[in-house]
Amino acid sequence: MKTWGIVSAIVLVLTTLLGFSFYEFSLSFHEYQVVQKPKVDAVMVLTGGRGRLSPALRLFSEVNADWFLISGVGEKNSLNSIFSADELEGIDPEKIILEKQSRSTYQNAAFAKDILVEKGVRSVILVTSSYHMKRALFIFRSVFPENIELIPYGVESDRGVGLKLAILEYLKYQWYHWTL
After folding, report:
1. What is the arithmetic mean of pLDDT over 146-167?
2. Is pLDDT of 32 > 80?
3. I need a surface site. Which of 65, 67, 75, 99 has the fewest CB within 10 A?
């Protein structure tokens, strides 16, 4: 009986710690919504979530960056299949880079690093969904050289963040936190 009490206490403590850890993580979903819009070399957006691309394009235009990198667009996509002609009006397509190979946030960081280093980029605004930003920043900061400044710009998901998505994002963050 004594062993059962000890096991129950350990399980209770671990469950409580896990609950607090998840709660703290979920607070980050609204941590990166506002950013001062400084002059930067590049704006980069990660595909994979809805509602990211158009705000990132508007931001690119507003900050007048040298480059706009869209990471993870897939092999078959083109600029015209991603944006309407109205959205692209006044935008120099030569400044837009479509990265088509990545299939994960880690690959987004690895492929983007090579592209941005080659272009001589020293500062980049990273655009992704607010719920995804904590993990994305952690991965990008692990992969990118220290001389590239990363500025977070989180956009709200048009569908909101449900419990299932929040738990999945938390588990992915923990995975990368312990494996990178």
Report:
1. 83
2. no
3. 75
pLDDT confidence tier of residue 110, bands split at 50, 70 and 90: very high
Half-sphere exposure of 107 (CA within 13 A, CB side): 12
CA dihedral 79, 85, 90, 94 (to 10 degrees): 20
Tokens 């994305």, located at residue: 136
Domains of the chain and CATH, by start: 3-179 (3.40.50.620)
Cβ pair 41, 15 in contact under 8 A: no
pLDDT at 111 over 80: yes
H or E segment and range at residue 96: strand 96-99
Residue 45: strand, helix, or coil: strand
Tokens representing 151 are 């500025």
Paired tokens of 172: 């992915």
Residues in the chain: 180
Quote the tokens at residue 21: 């850890």
